[in-house]
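Entry for the shared binder. Reason: the reviewer on the internal report wants the predicted structure included alongside the sequence.
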Amino acid sequence: MSNAPLVTVQGWIGNEPTAREVGGVPVLGFRVGCTPRHFSRTAAEWVDGETQWYAVSAWRRLASHAASSLHQGDPVIVHGRLTHRTYVNKHGLEAVAVEIDALTLGHDLTRGVATFVKAAPLPPDAAGAAEAASGLPAASDRSAAA
């Protein structure tokens, strides 16, 4: 999935984020709503467009940190891989869900202020396990390849 398009979305969290585990890996899920606005010259005012909703999933350490930081109604910026899937809804109609696999996310500081608390570093054995679970080569392998 390395060719998946990357997107950055600015919006508001629409539900209380839910934490779960998949195969022992923490995952946080929530929906973010984005309402585009444009200036109508004829009405001489700002006009809201149709709200777009995205399902967001954050994995591993990002999920753990976000679970302690994000709540329903918070303004956020989400950056990640955009995917979509087709499914049949409860009315028997085919629908498309647009989802973002978050790489980074945080509060939108144009809407308020936040205080950052640096997380404690992972112990060496936990850092190795996290790298192994991520499917990425170890840091020493990445630096040797560069």
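Summary line for the report: The first helix runs from residue 60 to 69.
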